[in-house]
Amino acid sequence: MTQQTTTRALMLPLDSIDIDAVVAGTKRLTPQEAYSLYHQASLYDLGRWANAVAERVHGSSTRTYVKDRNINYTNVCTARCTFCAFRRDLKADGSYTLSTEQLHTKIKQLLDVGGTQILLQGGMHPELPIEFYEDMLRDMKSTFPSVHVHGFSPPEFVEFVAIFNIPGFPTPGPLKAHTLDPDIYIEKLTVIMKRLQDAGLDSIPGGGGEIFPPHVRNRIGIGKADANQWLQVMNIAHSLGMKTSATMMFGHIEGVYDRIMHMNLYRQWQDKAHQQNLPGEYVSFIAWPFQRENTPMGNLPDYDPASTDQFPGDILADFIANQEIDPNDKKAHVAAVPDAGKVVRLAGATEYLRTQAIARLFLDNIHSIGSSWVTMGPHIGQLALKYGANDMGSIMMEENVVSAAGTTYALNEQYLCHLIRTAGYTPAERDNSYNILNIYTNDNIDAPDLAVEDWSTQRATTIHYEDGSSSGTCDSIPADQQSQSGDPNTISLDIAD
Ligand code: SF4
């Protein structure tokens, strides 16, 4: 085997795939079929098919969004993900943990603009005890009973198992959860999740999903939950009745087949949850391209798409899919594909739309597909509604993590509704469970977008950090408020149409 040779045995002829049955929901796409569609179907056809599935599942009249706020309660983190520009060591300059007062101020601001949920995440802080989290959740819920707490992420839970002192269980210390006996690990994890649920945690976002296959994950998610740990956390959440979301960060060192195998794991675990009649499940999937600025992985050279050499990540993924290399044998990876993991292939608009369309066709047991306008910008985000997405996600009152790694777009509610309406749908505000709270038809006088007379003042903004640092204060929208805030705190806003 050399780096230039690959079997491409995965590729099937397009006419062997019964796409009409997939669109009708009577046949499930195999991973190999999804891979073949990704490479051979036209962008137009992928969008057409994915849109037909979205319309079958969600109808053709409304498309949704939610009013929430990302709150990162700390940026202290023991993991060292190579794509992260947000984390800080415990005592490093710029490290922070929000006080109760700061947290409550942020929630109050959200509720004041009619928001309904917070997305609450760290860092994986090595020292905060479980009582800190229980108090934080109880304080929030007693002060703001209506707020939905969509909180933490599987890697945080894995670290909680490592560092929390829970009577009757060992405490191995930071990044050592894997050293516990597997049964004890699961038992301690379940106790922790139940305690936090009892304290007010409502649902769990899919942070840290990235890419599951180990030959990719081991290179990019240093010190973070492996695929099995990640999926186990969500499985326990589902057994406790919590809804969760599934994510994928792509467009870096992975091969296309790795993306499909990543989605395949979600599909398999969701099947299992349904077969077991668990009271919770994955309700949504969202994929976004890697943002490179200020990140270690972003320093890798770019793959030249004009090169006659195949992308190393694709070659390695093919070898592994064809069972020619063990996915956990790093030496074999290096010997077979020396450049794998040493070059990035960033995803542009077409790769993003192709990947999202494949997700809608492949993930037949996940209800909602979200558009990632936050990373792709408002117009590609809007177009994503024709490529399988049914949901525009959050108005993003605050975002700290992706914006530390490059450009993040910010939109207000008016603009978000405008994008949905001008794509041909009726905007509808939803809650975390996808229940509709408000439908803004053309004759609804409360429709946020219909009150706007001058769209030139309502353009999207982008957020990024001027000096490559991140202090964690990235309150982003609306643009006019931001630019007048005088906050010198690392943020600059550029107008981006
Ligand atoms: S991505 Fe999250 S888990 Fe990874 S280093 Fe950054 S803050 Fe920590």
UniProtKB/TrEMBL annotation:
Cofactor: [4Fe-4S] cluster
GO molecular function: 4 iron, 4 sulfur cluster binding; 7,8-didemethyl-8-hydroxy-5-deazariboflavin synthase activity; metal ion binding; transferase activity
InterPro entries named in the record: Aldolase_TIM (IPR013785), CofH/MnqC-like_C (IPR045567), F420 (IPR034405), rSAM (IPR007197), rSAM_sf (IPR058240)
The keyword 4Fe-4S appears for this protein: yes
Keywords annotated in UniProt: 4Fe-4S, Iron, Iron-sulfur, Metal-binding, S-adenosyl-L-methionine, Transferase
Radical SAM core domain span: 63-326
This enzyme's EC code(s): 2.5.1.-
First-level EC class: transferase
Composition bias, Polar residues: 468-497
Protein name, as recorded: Aminodeoxyfutalosine synthase
Taxonomic lineage from the root: Bacteria, Pseudomonadati, Planctomycetota, Phycisphaerae, Phycisphaerales
Gene of this entry: mqnE_1
